[in-house]
Write a structure and sequence with these properties.
Blueprint: H1 5-12, H2 19-38, H3 41-57, H4 64-77, H5 83-92, H6 94-108, H7 111-124, H8 128-145, H9 148-170, H10 187-215, H11 223-232, H12 236-264, H13 275-291, H14 294-315, H15 321-335, H16 341-344, H17 352-370, H18 375-382, H19 386-403, H20 406-426, H21 435-442, H22 449-454, H23 458-483, H24 494-500, H25 504-507, H26 512-538
Helix pairs in contact: 2-3, 2-4, 3-4, 4-17, 5-17, 6-9, 6-15, 7-9, 7-13, 8-9, 8-10, 8-12, 9-10, 9-13, 9-24, 10-12, 11-20, 11-23, 12-23, 12-26, 14-15, 18-19, 19-20, 19-23, 19-26, 20-21, 20-23, 23-26
Length: 539
């Protein structure tokens, strides 16, 4: 027990975190101001990114909101970014914030249906290869029409429910509700529990990678897709067709990688569900089925009907994703009789810490923006031409998305690239109209580009056509670059970061390093396939 105020403060600072971790964060906080006034904001900004990644990597020791939040606050106080910039970033990403608050809570009220559905799949499908492909393909298919965070929230709820059932059995109901506590689990059951953890880690990563495979293919798959589509004037079919030369080969290779990893059992894959665990899940499913009253059956029917509404509303984009999530909460609580605040409140517990962390992350994005940390890379790739430029765009967006938010990277690149190509269009002689106005018309979703080009003098139309053709391909490279290689780390994919910081991650021992290891083979096969497709098919 601490006896002095200094000892008490030291004990309170970052709570139960290791002493070396506390000292490391303090060292960062002391070092940053010194570096800012000696080597300047550019190098200090890059160091801040490394420090923030470190806090993410140590997520199981200390939730990144606290340590990362201190670093972000210091950056604002030092003037590396401003509160206004952080607010602008948060406001720009408000649809994502609403999604996290309302959609994830909506999924909470659908967990009975999800657990019922996936339990039946798990106990009936014995092939690990097949069920892995099922999770990966389901993640891909759903993410093409829904949102990757929504899909990730679904598979998290499913895995958490599975683990909860067996942990309660293995600990004899004496775990005190803490799923991380194995002290009450006997030796033989502990081995099965550890194998089951590995099994769930495998399925979660297959599903999470699936969200990236499907998310890259359509206009609504990822937030940056909507952004790029808006800047280019592409509708849903246009987007799918433009991206398909890269996204379809990557989808095929990603699914093949999933099957191969489970067959050869490398990089932490190949864990099987112990037969005893399967029996416990089957018995639990049968017991719940036997106890299911007419009222609980109607609840499942209602959840299924609301799930249909959810898919239809998201597929047709009837409203912002967060608003649709709120409608799910209202429908399920009203129709299934959840009317007390203390029963509604827990639905929001899963997502709100991550929502706060995401706003902290926007502070780091603000530093990247205000200090122009990516500017040298952007200027270099814009100086290239042809196939080399396409490949460089894909690689640069991929590398930057591994360490930053892929939505931010896509925003910066598509904005800078559009400005560059607008200047190229303006430089074309004998346009017969203002170059800036022409660029607006060429990227107007309500106008056919062929009609706009047909109104130009033939020679000018031909030059503008070639300029816009390269611009289209670069937009595809930005989209695929930010979506595919970014699976390497939890930093680039919001769905991966959500999984890492979820309540499930510490339960199944899914650390930052473990995620990077499990994602590594996917990163290699998918990134190389994307690059080859960009070089040979897109170009």
């Amino acid at each position: 027990m601490p006896h002095s105020p200094a000892q008490a403060f030291t004990s309170n600072f970052l709570g139960e975190s290791s002493t070396w971790y506390k000292l490391t964060i303090l060292a960062f906080l002391v070092l940053n101001p010194l570096l800012l006034f000696t080597v300047g904001p550019f190098i200090t900004g890059w160091l801040l990114i490394v420090e923030f990644i470190f806090t993410l990597a140590m997520a199981l020791k200390c939730y990144p909101l606290t340590a990362g939040g201190l670093l972000a606050m210091e950056a604002v106080l030092l003037g590396m970014t401003s509160p206004a910039t952080v607010y602008e970033e948060a406001a720009h990403n408000f649809p994502v914030i609403m999604l996290l608050i309302f959609m994830v809570a909506g999924i909470y009220f659908m967990k009975d249906l999800l657990l019922f559905t996936f339990t039946n799949i798990l106990v009936k499908v014995r092939s690990k290869v097949f069920i892995s492909l099922l999770f990966c393909f389901a993640g891909a298919f759903l993410s093409a029409f829904l949102d990757a965070l929504t899909v990730t929230a679904v598979i998290i709820a499913v895995a958490y429910g599975f683990y909860q059932v067996y942990h309660a059995y293995a600990s004899g109901g004496e775990g005190g509700g803490d799923l991380r506590d194995d002290t009450k689990v006997p030796g033989e059951s502990l081995e099965e529990l550890q194998e089951f953890r590995g099994y769930l880690r495998n399925l979660m990563m297959h599903g999470a990678v699936g969200t990236a495979l499907g998310g890259v293919t359509t206009l609504v798959g990822e937030p940056q897709n909507l952004l790029i589509g808006h800047e280019m004037g592409w509708h849903f079919p246009d987007f799918f067709v433009m991206v398909a030369p890269v996204s379809m080969p990557v989808l095929f290779v990603g699914l093949a990688t999933c099957a191969l990893l489970e067959m050869v059992k490398i990089f932490g894959y190949g864990h099987q569900i112990p037969e005893n665990v399967r029996k416990v899940l089957v018995q639990d499913a049968e017991a719940k089925a036997a106890q299911r009253t007419m009222r609980s059956k109607i609840k499942l029917v209602v959840q299924a009907m609301v799930a249909v509404w959810l898919i239809a509303a998201l597929g047709f984009h009837l409203a912002e994703v967060g608003i649709i999530g709120l409608s799910v909460i209202i429908l399920l609580t009203a129709l299934n009789g959840v009317t007390e605040e203390h029963h509604i409140g827990p639905a929001f517990m899963e997502a709100l810490p991550f929502t706060a962390l995401l706003v902290v992350f926007f502070s780091v994005v603000g530093v990247i923006h205000d200090q122009h940390l990516f500017a040298p890379v952007i200027h270099w790739v814009l100086s290239l031409q042809g196939k080399i430029q396409l490949a460089a765009y894909y690689g640069a967006n991929g590398l930057l998305s591994m360490i930053s938010d892929n939505v931010f990277v896509a925003t910066v690149y598509i904005t800078e690239t559009k400005m560059h190509f607008a200047n190229l269009v303006k430089a074309v002689p004998n346009l017969g109209m203002d170059g800036g106005e022409l660029m607006k018309q060429l990227t107007d979703p309500h106008l056919y580009r062929a009609d706009v080009l047909a109104a130009l003098p033939p020679e000018a139309a031909d030059k503008v056509h070639h300029i816009m053709d390269q611009f289209d391909k670069l937009a595809v490279s930005i989209n695929t670059g930010t979506n595919i290689p970014s699976v390497a780390t939890p930093n680039g994919q919001a769905a991966f970061l959500f999984l890492l910081t979820s309540s499930l991650a510490p339960v199944i021992r899914l650390s930052y390093g473990e995620m990077v290891k499990l994602a590594f083979p996917y990163t290699i096969t998918m990134s190389i396939t994307g690059l080859l497709a960009t070089w040979y098919l897109l170009a």
